[in-house]
Amino acid sequence: MPASEHSSISRDLIAQIVGEYIDPYTQEPLAYTDFVASVETNTESDSAEIRVDIMLGYPAAGIIDEYQQAVAQHVKDALLAKGQSADLVQSIKLHITVAYQVASHTRSSNVAGLEQVKNIIAIASGKGGVGKSATALNIALALHQEGATVALLDADIYGPSQPLMLGIPPEQRPEVREQKYFYPIEAHGLQTMSMGYLVTEKTPMVWRGPMVSGALTQMVNQTLWRNVDYLIVDMPPGTGDIQLTLSQQVPVTGSAIVTTPQDIALLDAKKGIEMFRKVNIPCLGIIENMATHICSQCGHNEAIFGDGGGERIAKEYDVPLLGSLPLSMEIRKGLDEGKPTVATNPDSVLAKQYRQIARQLAAQLCLPERKQSRAAPKIVVSND
């Protein structure tokens, strides 16, 4: 095809078209999140060439190929819609390259950031028994599989469960440097720290609030994290001392709330969202756990804890529903054996669901408004 027929395909036109592509995880145009790194066009030869480089702000190793194909199709469809002939569009050589780079989105507050940690995400719940710890672990593993460097902090001082779920032997202890710093214990590609590494499973933590807060601060600040993209914090249930300590003394980037669909869990989930709002930690979304149960005998799918609760609370607070997970024996069995699903069965349907949720969670940090937050207020308790 003569080069003159390609002259209408300018760099500005392609940049506009690519910038209008809606990212499936931020749900925003690429131009809005500055994901379009470069656009080059060459229309001087008989066959026009277009080169587009996209740099996503969230880990996306599992979707690179399909993302490139989707953007290429979007460009072709948009050119046709703008009146370009099918023959001309067919003749174009499209080179779409998609990569990712995780940036730091630390809060603007008086709390000093952690030198080796870019982003801290708290996984919380208003009540216990909703599968928060299992969700936190599998999301951390999913982010790792998507290409991020991930650490996991078990902040449940009273009832640490991550060592068991990670398959760490009870006698294993973290190495200590200078009698002050801990080296995190590596498991399934994660850097991990937990009070469970420092005490035996039969040692009850009979501590008052200040001691618990001090232990959490020490684990956060005295663990030698290494070049971490995301530090996932598995929070204890509720809205007490640890939650307040974390918000006041740790530069938390955002939070996600885990809930089941039942009404009583949703009430407590709302309290969790409100607590984070009061301390200016954005809620990045809702994760609905145990949404349905699939019978292992007949395959019947039933919403035994209610239906649509996660979606309702997400709409109420104008945050995304990051995903819904089933009540699964595979998840429970794997964690009891120290073999989490995402790590040991990465090609399973469940693992793919966790990776989908992890991508969407990380993508929320890329939205411009997430980068603009106010200083965390001091919390004063009075007798008024």
Write a brief structural summary.
The protein is of the alpha/beta class and 384 residues long. The chain is built from twelve helices and 15 strands.
Structural commentary:
The protein contains twelve helices and 15 strands. It has 384 residues and is α/β, with parallel strands linked by helices. The chain folds into two domains: 8-100, Fe-S cluster assembly (FSCA) (GMP Synthetase, Chain A, domain 3, 2-Layer Sandwich), CATH 3.30.300.130; 117-371, P-loop containing nucleotide triphosphate hydrolases (Rossmann fold, 3-Layer(aba) Sandwich). β13 and β14 form a beta hairpin. α4 packs across α12 and α6 crosses α7 (241-249).
